[in-house]
Amino acid sequence: MSRKTKRFPVHGANPLWQLYQTVSFWKVVKSFVVIQIARYTPFLSWKNWLYRTFLRMEIGEKTAVALMVMMDIMFPELIKIGRNCVIGYNTTILAHEYLVDEYRLGEVRIEDRVLIGANSTILPGVTIGEGAIVAAGTVVHKDVPPGAFVGGNPMQIIREGIEQQNEEQTTT
């Protein structure tokens, strides 16, 4: 499973050096200010409102984005987070990556009822399936199946079918 990113080759200096040809300076400034305010905001509903209103991110109802979460500053509108998710402390969610000869953009989709452990990094172009659990400190470099428990760097599937197991225990 490779990440779903779109590649943009550049010529001359590396793409980070050419940053403001890629994205507006004022968009980066606005995103930076909003994200920094949200990182320290203790009220989850206010934080989600900031993301939705000023950054055009999709954030589902009852989703909890913890303190110090770092959203992509340049392309936050490519981040989609479902309902009733928990995004752990100091997690980084990236929708772009700048390399030496190109930059890549990819939508990050986190489906409903996903738990992302603290200090994780989500790379561009991945989907984390419904009910998945990402262990703390994980680098999510590929898609995560629904109901899977993943962890590590590089990320490994530790167990699949977590969601079904929880539902079966509830019904018995």
From TrEMBL:
Protein keywords: Repeat, Transferase
GO molecular function: transferase activity
CDD domains: LbH_MAT_like
Annotated SUPFAM superfamilies: Trimeric LpxA-like enzymes
InterPro entries, alphabetized: Hexapep, Hexapep_transf_CS, Trans_hexapeptide_repeat, Trimer_LpxA-like_sf
Pfam families: Hexapep_2 (PF14602)
PANTHER family named among the record's database cross-references: ACETYLTRANSFERASE, ACETYLTRANSFERASE YVOF-RELATED
Protein name, per record: Acetyltransferase
Organism, scientific name: Brevibacillus borstelensis AK1
